[in-house]
Amino acid sequence: MHMFFRNRTNPQFLIILTCLLLSGCSVISVAYNNVDTLIRWTASDYFDFNASQQTQFDRSLRRIHAWHRKEELPKYAMLCTEMAKRVEAGLTSADLDWADNVVEERRIFMAQYISGDLAAVLSTIKTEQIDIMNMKFAKENEKFRKEHLGGTPEALEKKRVKKSIERIEDWIGGLGADQMIKINAMLKTLPQNSEYRYAYRITRQQMLRELLGTGLSKNELEIGLRDWLENWGDGRTSEQKQIWAEWTNRFRLLILELDAILTPKQRLYLVKKLHDYARDFIELSAS
Q: Fewer beta carbons within 10 angstroms: which end of the chain, N or C?
């Protein structure tokens, strides 16, 4: 549950594939089978590729999608099956460590796999295409500010708690009245981090902007993109690192406390959901 409930804030099209894998079981097959179209549309929206760039991008995307379907989805299925066993037994701090480690391992492996293909296309973009990317960033940043920073602290807190409860209920099939009170209290212990997230996304965008705007060769850009994708924590200030560490620690405690108050019916619901994910991943891999 930890790996799926966690809030992923990476906005760039480079990780849309991974994000779609976190969709609900009812839509995952449709989402995954159409992910190449979504990525193609998003990439074009960010860079307005010319015909040659689009052809190269599409060719690489088809190869990556086929590789991911065959090689990575079975690993995700095993991950879900193992997580289901751990949830069934009751989660421990060691289980959360395991979940973080295996998800991070898959994320880094994917970053390494796609960086060469990305560099081959992005090393050819022109100044005007970077300008388009900057305009897209500005638009997305404004959207982020309106959604996460627009309003009073009380209103934002209420919205954050409501979304988190909806996400929890999606995974465990509903909450009782007493559970709702406890979880509300737990969620309110999580530090507000929207300002940090906003500042951090600006930093990450600037890092990418500098990578693409310095005229690097394909090989040089591949190294830079791989580092940018792998080391997602780079660019945090000391204060931001402290805030992130505090949020992560509080979040882990919340997961363990939530696990401790699950009813047998809720635990069974969650275990079944994880097995459903595993089945979907296997079926998708074979299709």
A: C
What does the block give as tokens for 224? 């830079």
| Per-domain residue ranges of the chain | 2-286
Token code pair at residue 187: 């969620």
Which of 186, 60, 32, 180 has the alpha carbon at shortest distance from 120?
A: 60
Please give the model's pTM, rounded to 2 decimal places: 0.84
**pLDDT tens, residue by residue, 56-67:** 999 999 999 999
Residue whose C-alpha is closest to residue 234's, from 253, 254, 207, 211: 207
Q: What is the largest CA-CA distance in the chain?
A: 59
Helix ranges (H only) for 21-72 are 25-33, 35-47, 51-67
Residue 163, token pair as written in the block:
């979304």
Could you give the 3-state DSSP secondary structure of residue 26?
A: helix
State pLDDT tens for residues 99-143.
999 988 998 999 999 999 999 999 999 999 999 999 999 999 999
Kindly report the average pLDDT of the chain as a whole number: 87
CA–CA distances in Å: residue 218 to residues 54, 61, 132, 178, 203: 17, 17, 21, 57, 23
| Average pLDDT of span 36-64 | 89
Contact 254, 190 (CB under 8 A): yes
Q: How many CB atoms lie under 10 A from the CB of residue 214?
A: 10
The rounded distance, in Å, linking the Cα atoms of 124 and 177 is: 57
Residues in the chain: 287
Burial 26-42 (b: 16+ CB within 10 A, else e): eebeebbeebbeebbee
